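Batch 3, record 17
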Amino acid sequence: MPLTTDEAVSSPCGSTPEEPLLEVRGICKRYGPVVALDGVHAAFPRGEVHAILGENGAGKTTLMRILAGEETADGGQIYLDGQPVHFRSPYSARRHGISMVHQHFALADSLTVAENLALTLAEPREWRLRRRALAERAQYWAKVVGLEVPPLASPVGDLSVGARQRLEILKALVRGPRVLILDEPTAVLTPQETEQLFALVRRLRSQERTILFISHKLAEVRDLADRVTVLRQGRVVAQARAPFGNMQTLVEAMVGEPQMEWARPPAQIGQERLSLDRVCTDADPFGTPLRSVSLSVRAGEIFGIAGVDGNGQRELFEVLAGMRPLKSGSLRIHGTTVAARDPKDLLDAGVGLVPPDRRREGLVSEMSVVENLLLHRRTLARFTRRYAILDWLAARRYAQRLVEEYSIRVPDLESEAATLSGGNQQRLILARELAARPQILVAAYPTRGLDFAATQFVYRTLAASAAAGTAVVLISTDLEEILALSDRVAVLYRGKLSKSLAPPIDPVRLGALMAGLEADSAR
Amino acid sequence: MRPAIAELTPSLFAIVLALGVSAVVVWLTGSSPAAAFAALLEGAFGSRDSLAEVTVKACPLTLTGLAVALAFRANLWNIGVEGQLLVGALAMAAAAQVVGSSLPKPLALLVGLGAAAAGGALWAALPAVLRLRRGVNEVIATIMLNFVAAAVLSYLVQGPLMEPGGRYPQTEALPPEFVLPRLAPYRLHLGFPVALLAAVALQFGLFRTRHGFELRAAGLNPAAARLAGIPVERRLFWAFVLSGAFAGLAGGIELSAITRRLYERFSPGWGYTAIAVGLLGRLSPLGVVAAALFFGALDAGSNAMQRAAGVSAVVVYVIQGCVILFLATFERWRRASAQGS
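Prediction for the assembled complex:
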């Protein structure tokens, strides 16, 4: 694998025989005291798929936003076709043929597909909304780029995540860009949708377009990319061309230290802590109801629930959190049936919750680190004195201890939770839940969007918690995660849970279950 | 809990800028801004009498500002403080008519102000239930209830509660047992310390107690609060009701200490100014006190300004309006920069 190192990269670029379509030299960007980009050099040749690798906070998104005209660099220069260019806005970048698709979609959920497209498709001077003309234009562009458009009349809020992303990509493609930037495009997609996306990316490449995509997932990079640029702490630390061979070198460049192999010590399995018996939930228009789900989780065990997103994971979490009423069936904790009407019923029964959506459900972002560490019924009770007065002194000491124990990096205890990185937010949530000494821990997507170090921390913490006797339910779409951590695994597919598998688990069998291939025979 | 000073910085900036804008307005009308502001200051702080007047104006603004701050903290947009204030005053007037002079003064006051708080609370409970049980938008419900309250007041002071034998559409003067004592030869009355006490109590309640903590969490992020086992609906309901009680108390105190009678134009729109006070005070109870004093000083000084400098008292509204505009602008900037990083 041709791999250039730090020294080689910092030498002047531009000596490549063929001129790259897009090139950056010495790009710098700082936000207050934080240096996001520190003299980045990189060249992006025509008709290639170029992956940008790096941990969270390495500067990938910032670099892409600068290329898309959403941010202006503090220093350095962008060259397009060898000519220096300045983008003052996303609009001016788009006119130069650079479009970006964000990880978080910029779509109006309550408007229809056609109306969302109108925002992009309308001519600059067109002030009247002509639906039919717009629809025709949308179909035309969809055909040109070879993309299936979701039904034009349906509200975007009703679309699946994959369909929304296709809509975003279509929006980005209608002006015929030469450079398409995708920010972590697969983070939200199912495997099938990911395959569709990759096919599209390859088709775009064959049209001599350059695709830049940000990713955490090495397997994707290996499958798709012609070239890789690795960023760490705002600098380019490695560049490589396909074939990449052993990805270990790239991982090392990304992480900055040799990747540690992660292995879980064998578990001491105890008595049953939590069980579901033929649980069904009511249908709701945007979800997948659970259909006769049974499971049993014992002390000291990590029970992995695999599956493609949208097959009832949210519903299962809500049942285990006491937020969703059961239509039939029962939930038992320590063998006793619990009729939960509210999360507090389950929290009181000893359940800890790591919710799927950190920012929206796990934290109150406007509250301080201390306050968020207190945000648990049992913890609050612990620090409540007479007349409902909170003992802030003790609470602050407690928070300080947790911050140290879980190495949560915070400016100080009073800073808002919103200012923490995703990894530190997740550490905070884990610290809060585990410090309340749960008998049962339900963790949904605990490492989604986290970087390597934070992910490893979550794995170690979950394993340690199980080793201490907690019954852990791990709901995740990340197969590697499920396989690495779980003592037993079951697969959710269309609201039904498969029989549980015990190690050694064959990933192919698991994949078949996730794709629904065994759903019928399992019954 | 963040240092209060840092929280109030945007408010101070907004005030300075608003004063700047109004200075330009005064200058454009051909008067001297310096003279106008000097007269304003003199009118507000020039004598003990005027200082007392500032507290008189600040008293209802503090209590209604607290009502707004508490509800907004719960993410409930209680625009109905005006109506709750009127119902509170009505409840006190009604209680006074029923009880008459049969109770000794402290007890009568307790009954009267208790009725006022209860009246306001009840008027707020209605939209609270509608919102939390049925999802009815509380902004619309509370605005509508303001009109209902005003209409009920209008009907009562022209009919059932109209002073016997009088010609004016107003209630009979309160029996002396129901009148809040004054604290000085000026108009400074017991209501102001009560309002201050309410602010301190609310500050303590919000930031030092478990219920306050749960209320703030439930207001900022109901989903996370629910998963933490906090009874979200209950907290929000009581926040709304308590907000109404503060508003009702404001009406009761004003009736008892200043007007002694109820009539149609009883409130010059305190419930609406209260929104500005709450926002300027950054929804913090102690900040609300400061904001109420500022607005009270503007109000008290404006007449002096009109007399001494010949500048219309309306300039005060320019200042008030600009303060809110600038605050909203700062808030938008703050959000934009928070998202950008």
